[in-house]
Design a protein that fits this description.
The protein has 416 residues and is an alpha/beta fold. It has two domains: 16-66 and 318-407, Aspartate Aminotransferase, domain 1 (Alpha-Beta Complex); 71-311, Aspartate Aminotransferase, domain 2. The protein has helices at residues 16-26, 59-62, 71-83, 94-106, 118-134, 153-158, 162-165, 183-189, 213-226, 248-251, 277-280, 296-311, 320-336, 359-368, 391-407; strands at 38-42, 45-48, 53-56, 111-115, 140-144, 175-178, 194-199, 202-203, 209-210, 229-233, 257-260, 271-275, 343-347, 350-354, 371-372, 374-377, 380-383. A seven-stranded mixed beta sheet has the order 4-12-11-10-7-5-6, with helices on both faces. Helix 3 (71-83) runs antiparallel to helix 12 (296-311) and helix 4 (94-106) packs across helix 12 (296-311).
């Protein structure tokens, strides 16, 4: 295992095993954790309390688009922490205004609402959509099968995965789901009470499946003609992850409402709902809010992330350079291991490695060779590296992936 060459020389009387034991005694078990305890991150690397280094190709689940502790983001957070942490949203503060201005300038939107997370801006969008449809008696919301929008009750009810909804009792009225990438299937689910359709431009938790651009364009035309809101959940695809600031900008399909979070805060909790001037009126004073949403610290971090992406040339399209190198290397890897790597799909630095099964075992093998990835399903390994990935880090990943697939033997049950 690679060691942390820059580790501080300080006493560490508590081993990783002891930390895991202590954590398992006090933390709830609703999350399955690897037996790893990290103490610092730099760029594409995470370091354990014992100094072992792991190449992080999961990035906090699409959070670290610039890697861990990017200097410009870290300095911005340090300065803001010394200046102002919280005021409440009863007042204005500079970081929030500057970040909102940046998002309005670079997107279709006129107005921004800030919250703490992706699931919270989904809840805000649910409320906006229902208030939009209220005058005409429309309150039904249509999600897509395989989607994931969060774990609060409203966001979970919109999520198109039965396993996510199990065990919570009856979901609220007015939610349904249509097949992903199936325009006729969507038409069959739309009723006279449908107020909005929610779409992920790339299914994340659903297996890293990109939306067909033709499907999205048909959906846009249909929803505009029927006065149904089209909401893009770009919580995972946004902030340079797929090549542009947001995926819609490469798809030539402009939604009515766009939801952002994850990478937006650079590691701090931050979500944003972006929409037009007209639609913003459906969340009037008193209709929605957030105590900590858009606080000075998170907004300062978010502004630093966006400014850095543009200043260092990763946006509007520079980040595609390294992703194209990675995709080329993955294509070569697939030719070496066709029995395991059936295909590669996704957009930019949001990539799914499609397997014939055994994704959990493959993920465990990656962990053994010092690489963090995620099993999005039993047949898909999801990787979410930063856009400022180096050639050396790509080579490291490909070498370790080659080692993993070489160690796996033949897939159980044969190739599908």
């Amino acid at each position: 295992m690679r060691k942390d060459e820059g580790a501080e020389q300080e006493p560490r009387p508590v081993s990783m095993k002891e930390w895991v034991s202590r954590g398992s005694q006090v933390l709830m078990g609703n999350v399955t954790r690897e037996e790893l305890v990290f103490r610092k991150g730099r760029g594409s690397w995470l370091y354990t309390v014992e100094g072992d280094a792991y190449l992080d190709f999961l990035g906090g689940v699409a959070i670290h688009v610039l890697g861990h502790c990017h200097p410009k983001v870290t300095v911005a957070v340090q300065k803001q922490a010394q200046r102002l942490l919280h005021t409440s949203n009863l007042y204005y503060h500079q970081p929030q205004i500057l970040l909102a201005e940046f998002l309005v300038r670079e997107t279709f939107a006129d107005r921004v609402f800030f919250a703490n997370s992706g699931t919270e801006v989904v809840e805000a969008a649910i409320k906006l959509a229902r208030r939009f449809g209220a005058a005409s008696g429309r309150y039904d919301l249509l999600g897509l099968e395989g989607s994931f929008h969060g774990r609060t009750l409203g966001a979970l009810s919109l999520t198109g995965q039965k396993k996510i909804r199990e065990g919570i009792g009856p979901i609220p009225e007015g939610f349904s789901w249509a097949p992903y990438n199936d325009f006729e299937g969507v038409l069959a689910k739309v009723t006279e009470r449908t107020a909005a359709i929610f779409v992920e431009p790339v299914l994340g938790e659903g297996g890293v499946i990109p939306a067909d651009p033709v499907f999205l364009k048909k959906l846009r035309t249909f929803t505009r003609d029927r006065q149904i809101l089209l909401v893009f959940d770009e919580i995972q695809t946004g902030i340079g992850r797929t090549g542009s600031l947001f995926a819609y900008q490469d798809l030539d399909v402009v939604p009515d409402v766009l939801l952002s979070a994850k990478a937006l805060g650079g590691g701090l909790p931050l979500g944003a709902l972006l929409t037009t001037e007209e639609l913003s009126t459906f969340l009037p004073p008193g209709s929605h809010g957030s105590t900590f949403g858009g606080n000075p610290l998170s907004c300062a971090a978010g502004l630093a992330v966006l400014e850095t992406l543009y200043e260092e040339g990763y946006l509007p399209s520079g980040g595609a350079r390294m992703s194209s190198v990675l995709w080329e290397e993955l294509a070569t890897l697939a030719r070496r291991h066709p029995e395991w790597l059936l295909s590669v799909r996704g957009r930019g630095m949001m990539i799914g490695l499609v397997l014939p099964g055994q994704a959990s075992e493959v993920k465990a093998r990656f962990l053994e060779v010092g690489v963090l990835v995620n099993a999005a399903s039993s047949e898909v390994i999801r990787i979410l590296p930063p856009v400022n990935l180096s050639i050396e880090e790509i080579e490291f990943f490909i070498e370790r992936a080659d080692r993993v697939f070489s160690s796996m033997g033949r897939p159980s049950g044969g190739v599908k």
